[in-house]
Amino acid sequence: MLKERQKSILEATISEHLRTARPVASQELAHCFGLKAGPATVRNEMLKLDKLGYLEQPHTSAGRIPTDKGYRFFVDNLLTETNLREMEKKTIRKIFIDLDNKEEFIKELSKIIAYFTGSLAGTGIFGENIFYESGLAEVLREPEFQEAEYIQQFGQLVDNLEENLQEFLTGQNFNLEEIFIGRENPFKEARNCTMIISSWEHPQGFKGFISLVGPKRTDYCKKISLTRYLKTSWQTKLKKKTD
Fold it and tell me: How far apart are alpha carbons 193 and 216 in whole angstroms?
């Protein structure tokens, strides 16, 4: 178990890396996050977190970045759901209430979720050959895509996403929430990414899934809050006449 100070330093490191996409230095944390510890103490704790496998130091930098293990600890122990904007909630509710045609609904849901999260969104219906992807342009804006190898691997993931998801979801429970980080991913092309797969149900009774794919450095709070909202959004008493 990590000590409370180590948890605080890990959380601060991840938060800063998510914001800047840069390795984080101990002096930076000590000055900016109110950790009640000097740079030397923060440096020693970051070194311990490195040895424990939660952080790693890129060869070209004095700072550190989270590992898959670090992100997993963050998601499982430190993450708090964020409040979605009312505009986001209303837009999602409207899609669920207004769109009864399956193909139209899948297309619009994918597009709006990709826009809200900056991720590649793949959406489909359980047991039916209806699937739509959106958001490639949004996710390609992330700094990670400056590396040609990353782009190539992500392109392979996009090409195989529908087939891989349909195979993975065969026999899965309809009430689904999975968060795969880095090497946890069941698809080899996604080993440098984070993938969130979650289920939803339309008020007309058909059930489906959505997958959000992007770099490991992603807004976990926003994406998890949003996918969980999809499960209950249409159950509100929003009426068409109020839109």
Answer: 5
